[in-house]
Amino acid sequence: MASVGPSAASTQPALPSGPAVFKTVPYAFILPEIFCGTWVWILVAATSVSFPLLQGWVMYVSISSCLVSLLLLLSYLFGFHKNSENWKVLDSLYHGATAILYLSAAVLQANATIHSEFIPNSPLYYQLNCAASFFAFLTTFLYILHAFRIYYQ
Questions:
Q1: Which backbone phi and psi does 48 adopt, to 5 degrees?
Q2: What GO terms describe the biological role, i.e. biological process, of this protein (predicted)?
């Protein structure tokens, strides 16, 4: 018969608070997610946004994901989670859903990049779109890594 007591509860890893967030593997991905996501919307905003329907979704996903990830990072830094197990579920669901949204945004940005290749006299916009596509796929990968790592922790 297994005992259920304080020793069984102490085997679960504690959620990080403060600077320990940057040293713990799944939570350390939040800062690179914010950094790469910020580059996505800066690079898209630097183009002429020739395809507003496609790149509007990219801008929406990147800006909203950056803001929510920043709020999540601040909540971990200030310890708002109070070591609740529900925060792991929230974190996993958020990063999983955001990975799917970012994948759709990355594909649309790649499509906008392909279309911008054929616009005459705009090699700079094509290069900016290429960089935005790269960072969009990189950010998608970071969100996927975070979601799977927190899920299998």
A1: -80, 0
A2: myelination
Average pLDDT, the chain: 85
CA 37, CA 149: separation in Å to the nearest integer?
19
* 44 close to 56: Cβ distance less than 8 angstroms: no
Give the residue from 127, 72, 145, 138 showing the smallest Cα distance to 105. 138
- CA nearest 27: which of 77, 68, 85? 77
80 Cβ neighbours under 8 A, 6+ residues apart = none
C-alpha 153/C-alpha 134 separation (Å) is: 28
Query: Token pair for residue 10?
Result: 């102490």
Q: What are phi and psi of 29, to 5 degrees?
A: -75, -15
Cβ–Cβ < 8 Å for 116, 50? yes
In a domain, 82, yes or no: yes
Q: What is the pTM of this model?
A: 0.84
Q: How many residues does the chain have?
A: 153
pLDDT at 8: 46
By residue range, what is the domain housing residue 147? Answer: 22-152
Instruction: Say if CB 103 and CB 141 are below 8 A apart.
Output: no
Instruction: Give the span between the Cα atoms of 48 and 146, in whole angstroms.
Output: 32
